[in-house]
User: What shape does this take?
Amino acid sequence: RETRPAETTELWTESRPRFSVNDVEQALAGVTLVEAANERDEAAAIAIALKRAVEMPGKRAALVTGDRALARRVSAELLRFGVVADDSGGTPLANTPAASLLRLALGAAFRPGDPVGLLSLLKHPLLGLGLERQSVRKAAELIELVALRGGTGRPDVASLDALFETRLAGLGGDSRQPFWFQRLTVRGIEEARAVLNRLTDALSPLTAMRGEKDADIATLTRASVVALEGLGRAADDSLTSLYAGDAGEKLAALLRGLVAVSSPFMIGAGEWPDVMEALIAPETVKPAQGTDRNIAIWGALEARLQSVDTLVIGGLNEGVWPRKPESDRFMSRLMKTGIDLEPPERRIGLAAHDFQIAMGTETVVLTRSARSGDAPAVPSRWLQRIVTFIGKDQATAVRRRGDALLVWARALDAGDRKDFASRPQPKPPLHLRPQHFSVTEIETLRRDPYAIYARRILGLMPLDPVIRDPGAAERGTLFHEILHLFSRRVEDPRAPGALAALIEAGRACFADAALPPDIEAVWWPRFEKLAENIIEWEHTRADAVARRYA
Assistant: This one.
């Protein structure tokens, strides 16, 4: 197997005749080429190739790739066969359950107003609060319905219990109660209140630091640990689930190191979520036990130092083999050359060397996908040169072996062919059918009658959307309320103080609306400009108005 620098590849045309068809066939006897349509098929084919390679006792196989997304996909596919691969890259600590609970807690404490973040925290699988997990989950669903769905607002975890009580009382006196309100029980409401009280208490070490401008990392970490353990405490008062496994141990070690750090570096408490995100980002979790030592996933560096019986070279597309050189925002190529730093091309040469060494393995599987994400992918330059050099017939042979892997990969999810379900044709008894329809329901009845059946007969109703910021509809309602108040206070808009009265009515209605400061900062100047135009317009039509009603 021969590789050459790009500037000498024309010499292949001279050396190719020296190799007979039999020579090429023997050289490629252990080579398989998989060209999948997408990354999912590629990962499944790699998993099958690795599993088949270790069926014989004593055989070892490995995947080498610089694409961490592909490596994680292959790890997931191997789990279907009960194989936990020895992944040298590990799993990002940020993606583990305990770390995600910490990140959600910091976001809720220091970045109030995000209902999705609050819901994620309430429904996190590790949220215990010293209660049974099942009761916490049911309470979270009730809190979601009452406090975090329908209407507008910016929920704050520090006052979520007050928001829950306010909205619960409002729903009780509403003439148009949501369909789920009658299903609430006294016990369920009490459990929700208990969860809210414990949630507020658990996060109080963090919410108490919101206004601090200068805090050291050790102090912030200690408060974060207290909050995290309060959130993750189980019903038996243990923290076993929170710090379980390699991921829990890694997070605990990181937090211990941050608590012990001695640094004069001070930050604002509001910056702590971003700082913690940056501290967690480079950390990875590598399983200490439970991995299959016969199947490994390596980067290029690990592959240089080890050997296996079967090697899968995955992600053979430009940008991975070789990796695209990253531009340096601080130093140009000329500046690097001036101080004898290595040029980006050296890494390309090193990747070519890694590829050449990998091709020397007894059995090699080359894989790539035709698409990377949503965009077409370009085959690696080295793969293109090999395919060009060996010729069409030999390329077809190695692709045929790869097609067999793809067929097996697709067969993993293949099931018995089933016909589509027939179109629903509900025929409820006459006495259950609705006797009248609203105007808007007529169009729905023509377009989608099953929607009427689901709502009016089965009683299936959609949930309100998650609570959101005030929008155009709320702005229009607010401006109408201002005009209504103005028309009650001022009979003649041509009066000298009409504009001041309109502005005063606006201040009163804006105060009642209690808008978030950033939204009020945009809406109020618009209203002031609109108020001037309204008074001017009233002047132009005042002579034609015989009588006004407020």
User: Anything to note?
Assistant: Residues 472-544 form one domain.
